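Archive record
______________

***
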Amino acid sequence: MHNLLYLLPLVAIGQRVLQNPTAVWLAAWLFTVSNWIGQDYFSPQGWYLFVYLVVLAVVLEWFAPDGPGLPARSPRRWTWPPVQGALVERAATPGRRSVLLALVLLLSLAVLGGHQLTPFALALGTGAAVLVGWCRVRTLPVVLLLGTLLWTGYAATAYVAGHPETFSQIGAIASIFEQTVEQRLGGSPGHELVVQLRLLETPVLWVLAAIGVLRLLRHRRRRIAWGLAALALSSFPLLATQSYGGEALMRIAFFALPFMALLAAVGLAGPAAGPVRRRALVPAVLVGALLVALFPLTRYGNERMDWKTPVEVAGVQAMYAGAGRAPSSRR
């Protein structure tokens, strides 16, 4: 369910930045088959990644300043042009932009109270957009960061008090890296194989993203190259704050994946819109075959740890049934 939701803002961001339908849809496919993080269940982090992408999509579509930073807005013939054109026209007035800004702040407020890590990633992501000139509301990341700190220091004091590691690991890069990488490499042979395949697949995508940056630079689309790279790398500073229970690097890869996929698609298909050349199909087919072959293992290889036998399910049900009868038995 969440994986389908992610594609909506991902495609919106791609068509706004690249305006290359081949690269955008290739990015959507790369994102899907490379998403081994396993957050597509009903979880706060799964839902708030969607909100994170929606906020960035709104910022890039309606709050990017006019100029050389992004391509000029125009209805796209390849996807819902009447709807897209109407939205751009309706959002052009200051009053409607104010409504959209209020929507961004409302969504951000929901993120503040919904998850521990996503608010910081959202502040960093909008900060990256401001840094590369893709957001005219320059105070937005400051407001989001201050709001996150206020929420953490006031409304979430009980959580922080019960989790002293929340801020005690700031700057301990070596310790954080050990917990997020080295300690996750242990376990059964099957688990080690899955982790190793994930560690192989992710750098492959990142190398393709680096190639995409180089291809954009060669075509003199420097703002697009640095903008997508900044958004992809914006969450990496979180690695210097805490290990997040050994999942910090995994969650950072989760935030970076949409933009890495866009850059990787450019690396395979090229930055220019138009038919894909035959020589570009060969690496795309090879990479696609590799990712599809790895997907069952990287995505579902560790499902055994979440599998519950019928006996275990019956035991939990009996426990809940006994807990429900306990108060009445004391009366």
